[in-house]
Amino acid sequence: MTIENLVLKAEKDCESIFRQIEQNEYYFSNLVLSAFQSENINETHFNMTTGYGYNDCGREAIERVFAKVLKGEKALVRNQFISGSHALSTCLFGLLRPGDTMLSISGLPYDTLHEVIGIKDNPSSLKSFHINYEQIDLINNKFDISSIKEKLKEHKIKLIEIQRSKGYSTRESIKIKDLEEVIKAIREIDKEVIIMIDNCYCEFIEKTSPLEVGADIIVGSLIKNLGGSIANNGAYIVGKEDLINLCAERLNLPGEGIDVGPSLGSNKSILQGLYFAPSVVASALKTAVLTSYLMEKLGFKVEPSYQSARADIVQNIIFENKDLLIKYVQLIQKNSPIDSGSMPIPTSTPGYEDEVIMASGAFTQGSSIELSCDGPIRPPFIAYQQGGVTYNYGKLAICNAINELIAKD
């Protein structure tokens, strides 16, 4: 069967899955539109500030909109954040103090946080400020609730960190129902511990926000889901007001916190990106489902399966072969709109322990809501694919890449 015919079969077999994605898109579109209307977003909010950024009404409106959409008391949404990892680092340094202990209950955090925490030595890490780190791994993709409860009884934990998306691990991403279960168990032991969620890649997938099931604070990037491929940079932190204020004082400075920070012309792109985000995330999900279907039918291992419920936009293709991983990533680059003539190769990358190969032929550097694909050069040689601004562009890239991949092997 040709790829073209397999795609036709895929779209027929996935019709009900695509319909559910579209229904969720409608729900999130209504959520965003209602937030824009309730905050009376108008052209004045597109204006920019410079310097200190005092009285930036657009920036303040954006943060109220994000708080409404993500169900938090307050939001910190800034173009001063370089990445989601920068926002996560800001959050951790803002909330933790010397002698405190943070506990990860979803296993090892993403590679770019290793030097932040001090898992890998760095003189600027949390560890260097005498902030302790402990970890409990998932068991068969589920929280180890008994071990978490025992740890909370042993000694005081200041902050629990949960990374929903799989990162460069082989585990499944974490769904809201599992979050709700573990948060309920945590609160039975400690009602005061801060529960912080790394929500990157997970926005606008499930209708319930982590904040609605008891999380205190969530963090994500604007060059992923909520930027809708339009925001040029930035990230958000949303949650309880007192915690957001602490994070703002870490990002800026004590005494000024959330009241400063020039928008530098970013307000319109952040608002427009959020407005388009439900549609773009839906396209990314359809692209992921199609990829999973095609690769599974061609004999490759995938996670999640095309039929599985999803917590994020990431699609794993498990090649178990270094050369196939490299080739596939290179073919995604070749079929991208920007830098299609470039040839990615595995290389050392700041923040990562292994060599990494990355394809991102994107309009915004590093954007992973635009179709991108990357992976560490280590067994089992997994390609982590995400994004797709429109389904048809995603389908074109995937079909062209697969055609050439199987023609060569």
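Second entry:
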Amino acid sequence: MTRLFFAMQNDRQKGKGYGTIAERLAVDYAFEVPGMEAVNADTLLKNERSRRVLEKAGFQCVGREESFWYYQKRKNG
């Protein structure tokens, strides 16, 4: 399993769409280069900004546990 983590450390750069762009580029790469069929993601329940980024990048919520939301994006979905 390969894991990738995005974090905007500079508050002045948040809210400008950089996270969404990075997420889309990473997913496109995962589908095209190694030929993955699906990409999974998770975020803390309290992290609304991360949830919005995932949803804007085309991820669908597939579950929730005590502390996390779980998302997935399929290659042709």
